[in-house]
From TrEMBL:
Keywords: Cytoplasm, RNA-binding. Residues 92-118 are annotated as: Disordered. GO terms for molecular function: RNA binding. Coiled coil: none annotated. It comes from Thermocoleostomius sinensis A174. This is KH domain-containing protein.
């Protein structure tokens, strides 16, 4: 039995949509663009996701997006390509509030009272 490679040019846009749409509340806002560099066999896949859907796509600890990257890299490798995935998105309306313009202060650990030596 011999291994036959997949089609010469996988449908990266369709594959990304297939993998990402189940996480989205508004799938119409998903924008996908891909470019294959014939000279370097590099595939650049750009994904634009609006609002809170970006958090769902990334998942807790980035697990979802890492799985998506792994699938894309496997398909690309089987086709002789190297895949690079870039994610773009806008802030949600709640995060664009005027109160967010202030710098965020980081707090240090509470200080212990010093022991007096007698």
């Amino acid at each position: 039995m011999s291994f036959s490679p997949l089609s010469s040019q996988p449908d990266y846009n369709g594959l990304v949509k297939f993998l990402v749409v189940p996480f989205l509340e508004s799938p119409d806002s998903l924008k996908v663009d891909s470019e294959i560099s014939p000279r370097t066999s590099r595939v650049l896949i750009r994904v634009a996701i609006e609002g809170e859907d970006k958090g769902r796509v990334f998942g807790r600890g980035g697990r979802n997006i890492q799985s998506i990257r792994t699938v894309l890299q496997a398909i690309a490798q089987a086709s002789g390509h190297v895949a690079h995935l870039e994610i773009f998105g806008s802030q949600t309306a709640g995060r664009d509030s005027a109160g967010d313009d202030k710098p965020h202060l980081s707090r240090s650990a509470p200080r212990r009272p010093s022991r007096s030596r007698h």
